[in-house]
Amino acid sequence: MPLPRPPVARGMTIGVALPVQYRIDRTVQLAREAHEFGLRSAWFGQTFGYDSPSLAAIVGREVPRLHVGTAAIPVFGRHPLLVSSQAQTAQAATGGRYHLGLALGTRHLTETGFGIPYERPIARLREFRVIGLSGAARAADLAVIGDEETVAAEVRRYREAGATEVVFTATDLGGEEDRRRTWKLLGELAVTP
């Protein structure tokens, strides 16, 4: 019998970073399931496959009330105006539930993957802020999944530190059953007292 879990705090939400290697219909299905378990947001990393802002827009449109976001788009390799257009499109498609996450990326990815020099990364990030792309409206912290007690303790710790959103990644490492059990736990933790 599981131990009762005390509420973590008011005002913080819990989300999940979804894998991006599945077909889009499967990704929508996973996002819908996460929302049904009580998770408030789904986040998508940028890979060399699907475009994460587009995927977030599709999922957000298909799963009403679920917040979606990118975690995160590397600032090298995309022009700030392109990212702005993508963010505005995703924001419109989701009714204002899209959250933009930007990242500096790595020298290796930038130079070998994009074929451009990794120069002045902070100045490059500032170019995105100048046109109003300062990132998500709320901070998102990443936490490592452990056993149920560890997860509950980590969520409480983040809330007590003032985090407004916690996003959990790699919730499917143990397979389908573990993912469902983890999402159920996170949904229970997300309920505000």
What best-fitting shape do the alpha-carbon axes yield? globular
Structural class: alpha/beta
Average pLDDT, all residues: 76
Strand order in the largest sheet = 5-3-2-1-8-7
Largest sheet: 6 strands, parallel
> How far is the first residue's CA from the last residue's CA?
22 Å
Work out the strand percent: 5-15%
The helix content is 40-55%
Number of contiguous helices: 7
Order of SSEs:
EHEHEEHEEHHEHEH
Q: List the uncertain runs.
A: 1-9, 130-146
Count of extended strands: 8
Rounded to an integer in angstroms, the radius of gyration calculated over CA atoms is 17 Å
User: What oligomerization state is this entry in?
Assistant: single chain
What does this 3D model show about the protein?
- With 193 residues, the protein is of the alpha/beta class.
- The chain is 43% helix and 14% strand.
- The chain has 7 helices and 8 strands; from the N terminus they run E-H-E-H-E-E-H-E-E-H-H-E-H-E-H.
- The chain has helices spanning 24-36, 52-62, 80-93, 107-113, 121-130, 148-160, 176-190; strands at residues 13-18, 41-44, 67-70, 73-74, 98-99, 102-103, 141-143, 165-168.
- The protein has a 6-stranded parallel sheet with strand order 5-3-2-1-8-7. A two-stranded parallel ribbon has the order 4-6.
- Helix 1 (24-36) links the parallel strand 1 and strand 2.
- Helix 6 (148-160) runs parallel beside helix 7 (176-190).
- It is globular, with a radius of gyration of 17 Å.
